[in-house]
Amino acid sequence: EGCSIYYLTKTSEQPSTTPTKQKIHQPTVQPKPSNVTNITAPQQPIIGPFVGNRAPDFSLDLLNGKTARKVAILNQKAIVLYFFTTYCVPCQEEMNEMRKIYPNYKNIIQFIAMTIDDQETADVLQAFKQNHPLLTGSIDLAPLNRNLMNAYKITSPGTKIAMAKNGTVVVRSESQFDQNDWNDMFLSFKNLTISS
Questions:
Q1: For residue 13, how many C-alpha atoms fall within 13 Å in the half-sphere facing its CB?
Q2: Could you please report the per-residue DSSP string of 101-160?
Q3: N or C end of the chain: smaller count of CB under 10 Å?
Q4: Is the full-model pTM beyond 0.85?
Q5: What is the pLDDT along the chain (196 residues), one digit of tens a residue?
Q6: What does the alpha-carbon distance between residue 138 and residue 98 come to, in Å, rounded to a whole number?
């Protein structure tokens, strides 16, 4: 049966000062069928520079005069952002390891190296590129973009952030990579491309 609620009321057959009880029935709440589940709206991905986040948008002026826009690149390729300085020796060692294998993956990955030193102007980067043609021959260089640096929370040279074509950050590392590390990361993007 339904649940009952009792409350005080007045009737015309009794003095107005004498309240009586009247029983009021409310319908029983039927239990939810076991095969019905709660459906919640999917949560929007968090925008941020860490693994699992949706990478922040960016528009970056490159040394070659072109502009790299995240959305446009991800329509065709995955992205690796590499943050360095021209005087960072470990960065040069990493870039040397990377450049040996990157040509095998450049059709599916755009590699962008941005300096994090605001004293390293386009002229400084151009001189670095000319002095290190093997290191920089197949990648895009960019002067500092403070907005991008802040959005991706970069504090040290050698930081690597990789994002898949859906815009999700899949790698963030400040560790020094050797050729095997670069290859493992690049190969993961190639496997994603094949399986999608």
A1: 1
A2: TGGGTTTTEEEEEEE--TT--HHHHHHHHHH-HHHHTTSEEE---HHHHHHTT--STTEE
A3: N
A4: no
A5: 444 333 344 444 455 555 555 554 555 555 555 554 455 555 778 999 999 999 999 999 999 999 999 999 999 999 999 999 999 999 999 999 999 999 999 999 999 999 999 999 999 999 999 998 887 878 999 999 999 999 999 999 999 999 999 999 999 999 999 999 999 999 888 776 544 4
A6: 10
